[in-house]
Amino acid sequence: MAKKKNTRKTGFSEIMGISNIFQNDIFNFIFGILILLLSVFLVIAFISYIISGQNDQSIILDLKPGEWSNSERVFHNSCGSLGAFAAYFFMSRCFGFAAFVIPVFMALLGLKMVKAYNVGLLKCFMCLTIIMLWSSVALSKFLAPFAGDLIFSPGGDHGLFCCQWLENVIGVPGLMAVLFLVAIMFLTYISSETVTVVRKLLNPVSLITNKVKFRVRVGNESDENTADNEEKKIPYVEDPEVFDDPQPQTVDFGNAGMASVPVIENRIKADLGNVEEPGFTVKETETEEGADDKTLVTEPDINTPINPKEPWTKYKYPTLDLLKKYDNDGKPYIDMKEQTANKNRIVEVLNNFGVQVRTITATVGPTITLYEITLEDGIRVSKIRNLEDDIALSLSALGIRIIAPIPGKGTIGIEVPNAKPNIVSMESILNSRKFQETKMDLPIAIGKTITNEVFMVDLAKIPHLLVAGATGQGKSVGLNAIITSLLYKKHPNELKLVLIDPKKVEFSIYSPIVNHFLAKVSDDNEEPIITDVTKVIRTLNSLCRLMDTRYDLLKSAGVRNIKEYNEKYVNHRLNLTHGHEYMPYIVVIIDEFGDLIMTAGKEIELPIARIAQLARAVGIHMVIATQRPTTSIITGNIKANFPGRMAFRVGAMIDSRTILDRPGANQLIGRGDLLFLNGNEPTRVQCAFVDTPEVERINQHIEQQPGPVEPMELPEPIQDDGSDMGGGSMDVQNLDPLFEEAARAIIATQQGSTSMIQRRFSIGYNRAGRLMDQMEKLGIVGAAQGGKPREVLIQDENSLTNVINNIRN
Ligand SMILES: Nc1ncnc2c1ncn2[C@@H]1O[C@H](COP(=O)(O)OP(=O)(O)OP(=O)(O)O)[C@@H](O)[C@H]1O
C-alpha cells in the first residue's frame, strides 16, 4: 500500500484566497468575464499611453483637484483618466513595456474562471512574473538607447533602477551574465530541451561521433515527437572520465536521481568488452492533462422534450473529493541509478547473445519501465524472439516481458518492473480531462498505461468483459474501479447494475445504493445483491426475458439499438401507450463465475452465453470475473462471446493462454498490473486503485441523493413450459400487493392498458406488465394484443370482489 499521508497540497488559488470564489460557478463566470474585459481595457490603455502619453503626462504629474474625473476631457488616453493613470503607473513607474504581461495574466485568469481554458495558474503566475521582471531589466539595458522621445524608460522605473544598480555593482559584463543566467534557468524550467540545445551548441561535434543512444522518458510523449524531431534527439556527449574507466562504472548523477528535475542528461560510454554502452537522457514529458479537481463530474444540459433524469433531476453525481489522493500521484519518478543499472544489464545480456544494440529508449510508467531497443542493421528481430527465454532468464528480474517486435514498430520492447512502483489512484484517473470529457456510453476507466496515459474503454462497445487472474492480484479492486467509473458518469435512470457475488462479501459494500442503481427479479424479497446460485439462474433467465422484451420494443420503435431507441424516446417520437419507456443500460457483474459454473454448469453457462451473444443492442452488458482461468471454467462458448479480456497475473502460462490466447499474464507483477485485450494486441495497464473506504464514501453520497425508492424490477423469468418461473399457482401470496387496486382501476376505466397502470401507480413497465399477466390468469383482462390495450372481461366491481374472494378462499 502506498503511504497514507495526506498529500493534499495547498494550491495557488487557496493561497490567494480565491478558492471559495472558484466554487460558485455563476460567480466564477461573471467574475471571469469581468477580468477578461479588464485585461482588454488595460491593453488599450497601455497602447494609448504609448501613442499619446506625452499629452497626459504633465496632467498626471501635476493633477488639479477634480481633473481626475476627466469631465472636461483633458486626458487623451482612449481609456480615460483611469486608463491614463493605470498605464502611467504600470508602464512608467513599474515595468515599462514588460507591463503588458499583467493583462496577459489577467486574461488567463479570466479564461480559467469562465472555464474556457484550463491553465495551471501557479505555473503561469511564476513564469509571467519572471518574464516581466527579467524583460523590464533587459529592455532598460538594450532598448533605452533606441527609445528616442519615449516618455518612459522601456523597462520602467523598476528596470532602470535594477539596471543601474547592477551596473554599479558588477558592471555591464556582470549585468549581461546575470540576465543570461536567469534566462537559461528559466528556459530550463520551462522546457527540458534547453539543456540539450545548450549542450548541442557547446559541443556540436559529439552528435556525430556516438552510435548507441539511451534516453529515459516519462509519460505520454508521443513517438511522433521522437521520430519527427530528429533535430531534438539527444546529443551524445562523451564523458572522457567515464569512457576511460575500464570497470562497469557507477555514475554519480548528483541530484539527478528524481524525475522532478526537468532535464537530466548524461552520457556513459563504458568498456564492456567491445560493447558500446548507451548514453543517458532523462526527459520529463507532459503527464495526462488533469481536469479542474473542484468540478463535479459533468452534467450535460438536457434540452429534449423528455428529460430522462425525471423525476430525479436534483440527483448530484459523486464528487472527486470522495476519492483519496496519493503521493506522487500520476507522476512516476525516475531513479537514475536503477535505470542505468537496468540499461547496462540489458545491453550486456544482449551483447552476450551477439545482439548489437543501436539505441535504447526507456519509458517510465507507474509500475513498469519499457526499454525500447533498436538493433544494429543486419540483426533480425527473429533472433531476439528465439532468444526470448534466455534473455528473460539472464535478466532474471520478476515480471520481465519481452515484446519482439513491438507491434507497428521495428523495435524490441523489454518491460521491467520499477523498484518503487507508484499507486495509480482512482482520483488521478477520474480527474483527467479524458474521463471527464468522454462521450462514451459506458466509460470504464481502468488505469494508466506504461506511457502514463489514462486507459479507458467503452463497455457499450466491447461489449462484454472477461476478467481473470490468480487470487490476490487485483481483480476485486479492478471490478470496483469499473463500477466506480460508471457511478461517476451515470444517472440512476441511465444505468442499472446486477451484482452477483457468490463469495458473499465482495459486493456487500454496494448495499446503500441498491435502490438507486440495482436491478432484481421482481418477486425476490431478499437483498438485490445476489449471492445464491438458484437466484443467479433466475436472474440470468430473467435478463434473457428482459432482452426479448427490449427487442420487441426496439422492433416496434423501428430502431436498431438502445441508443437510437432512447433518443427517439426523449424526443417524444415513441407512442407511450405502447409500453415504451426509457431503457437504462444494464451491467451484470459476476465476481466469481467459476464457482457458479462448478455448481450449476450449463444452467449458468447457457444464459450467460445467450445474453453475451444477443444483448449488446439492447444495452445489457456483462463483466464476469474468475480466479480460475481454466478451460473448464472459461469454456469455448464463453470465450467466443467475451471479446474484452482483462488479465491480471496468473500462475501459469497455460492460464494466460486460456484468457488471452497468448502468454504474458503469467509474467505480470501483480497488485493491479494487467493486460487488456480487445482486438489484436494486449495493452499493459496499471489498474487504478480504489480502496473500500473510498467506495463506501461514494455509496453514502449516492444514498443521500434523491433517486428511485426501490431497485429496478426485472421480469419474472420464463420456465421451460412457458409459464413464469417462481410464479406458482395464483394464490394471494403470489399476487402483487398492488393487484387489487390495479384491477379496480382497470375495471373503473374499462381500459386494459399497461401504461395506464404504470402511470397511475408510478411503477416500472415490468411490474405493470406482471400485474396485467396476473389479471389475465384470473380472467379479468384478455390476452395481450401487441401494442393495443387488452380487452377488459369484467364489467363491475362486484364481479371483481367475487374473483378476489375466490382466490382468498
Ligand atoms: N491497482 C492496484 N494498485 C495497488 N495495489 C493493488 C491494486 N489492486 C490490488 N492491489 C493490492 O492487492 C490486494 C489484493 O487485491 P484484490 O482483493 O483486488 O485481489 P483479488 O484478485 O480480488 O483477490 P481474491 O480473488 O482473493 O479476492 C489489495 O488489497 C491491494 O493491496
TrEMBL record:
Primary localisation category: membrane
Family: Belongs to the FtsK/SpoIIIE/SftA family.
Compartment(s) of residence: Cell membrane
Residues involved in ATP binding: G469, A470, T471, G472, Q473, G474, K475, S476
Matching SUPFAM superfamilies: P-loop containing nucleoside triphosphate hydrolases, Winged helix' DNA-binding domain
Keyword Membrane carried by entry: yes
Protein name from the UniProt record: DNA translocase FtsK
Positions of the FtsK domain: 451-657
Species classification: Bacteria, Pseudomonadati, Bacteroidota, Bacteroidia, Bacteroidales
Top-level taxon: Bacteria
Organism this protein belongs to: Xylanibacter caecicola
